[in-house]
Specification:
35% helix, Nucleotidyltransferase, domain 5, globular, alpha/beta
Length: 128
């Protein structure tokens, strides 16, 4: 059975995409091509002081979400918002599937899936 729902947990160094139904879960882990542990610019630079997420990394995530019917995006920092901006600009067909963006810290894989199942049960009940 194909998986209609998906959740992606991401930060600047890793994305975990979970496609799931009531009984099954598939997970895919993605990393930026040029991952560096240190993401901050030097002091006294213009801007937020943080490097933007790699556009190729964001596109890989979008591709992994393309077959889902509904998507929940979660993560601890601003990378999830960078993903939303990327989807809006480059992958609007995936952006239309996003039903929520939530801030969560660093849960285990089981906690992410449990969170998503609970979220989608509540969201599905609100649909006409």
């Amino acid at each position: 059975m194909p998986h209609y729902h998906a959740i992606v947990w991401l930060d600047h160094s890793e994305a975990k995409v979970f496609a799931f139904n009531a009984d099954d879960v598939d997970v895919k882990t993605l990393h930026p091509h040029d991952h560096r542990a240190h993401i901050h610019h030097k002091a006294n630079t213009v801007g937020s002081g943080k490097e933007a997420a790699d556009p190729n990394y964001l596109h890989q995530i979008a591709e992994a979400l393309a077959t889902a019917g509904e998507v929940l995006i979660v993560g601890p920092g601003g990378t999830k918002l960078e993903l939303i901006r990327h989807l809006h600009k480059h992958d609007p067909q995936v952006e239309k599937k996003v039903v929520g963006v939530e801030t969560v810290d660093h849960p285990t894989d089981k906690q992410i899936v449990a969170y998503a199942r609970k979220y989608f049960r509540a969201a599905d009940r609100m649909q006409p």
